[in-house]
Amino acid sequence: MNLVTGNPSEAISLDKLRNVLIRLEDTIIFALIERSQFAHNDIIYKPGAYKYEGNEEFSGSFLEYFLWEIEKVHAKARRYQSPDEYPFMGPLPDPIIPPLEYPRILKPNNINVNSKIMEFYIKHIIPSLCVPGDDMNHGSATTKDIDCLQALSHRIHYGKFVAEAKFQDPNLQPKYIEYIKAEDRKAIENLLTNKKVEEALLKRLRRKALTYGQDITESDSIVGDNDHIHKHLKIDVNVVVELYEKWVIPLTKEVEVEYLLQRLDDPLEDTE
Ligand SMILES: O=C(O)C(=O)C[C@]1(C(=O)O)C=C[C@@H](O)C=C1
């Protein structure tokens, strides 16, 4: 979605937002495939494992250090002014180019679940995605981690736009307002959950991971039987599906619920 030049009312169509989520599946699968070529390299994630010249007081992990440095540069290029971009680290410098006028699609909110994304990624995804051990490719593995984390963060925080589109459905809005006022998280979650969309997503994801993960130089692998394909895959398909089932979809829903809970706090809102 082009948040800058797009027509705000068009930009909020649920179908279009779902198409963005579908496209981001590809980004995430390819980023995971890239990371999986390197070993676990546990030292990247250990706080204080390295000392940083000129920044000796920083006691975080190498991944956090690298991510922060990158986010500082990206902040100068106003990346985090965009309502679909959220930083992991801070504080960050102000942009060095003038701000853009974004259409005001989202209501003001302070939701950022990046610390949860970082935690499940390091604890659950990396150990099942990568071979154990240390191959010394610490810099390369970290750049791939950053690609994975940024893609996951983008996808999960997109839940804010999805929630806004759902709220704007005139048939559902009275129910949303009732549950938001009652602060009933469970009822909001049930109302925004679409099991059919989730099931279709998980099936599609499995097919994509099977297809994108194939080694095309294996001449017979594409038409081969399932066992044969699995032997030549660059990535464990189950890791990708589980990532979405256990973490990406639930956290997207959490973002949606939290966004809706803050949705009526906007003084300019007239949905009384
Ligand atoms: O597509 C939607 O309706 C969403 O809210 C997104 C999403 C997802 O994370 O993919 C989350 C909740 C729904 O149950 C279905 C899918």
The major sheet is characterized as:
none
**C-alpha geometry:** globular
- Ligands bound to this protein structure: prephenic acid
Q: Can you write the helix and strand succession as a string? A: HHHHHHHHHHH
Radius of gyration: 20 Å
Spatial gap, N to C terminus: 30 Å
SS-derived structural category? mainly alpha
Q: What's the total helix number?
A: 11
Can you describe what's shown?
The protein is mainly alpha-helical and 272 residues long. The chain is 57% helix and 0% strand. The chain contains 11 helices and no strands. It has helices at 8-11, 14-36, 62-76, 114-129, 138-157, 159-167, 173-181, 185-192, 195-212, 226-231, 237-263. α7 runs antiparallel to α8 (185-192) and α8 crosses α11. The protein is globular and about 55 Å long. The two termini are 30 Å apart. The chain binds prephenic acid. The site of prephenic acid has 13 residues, from α2, α9 and α11.
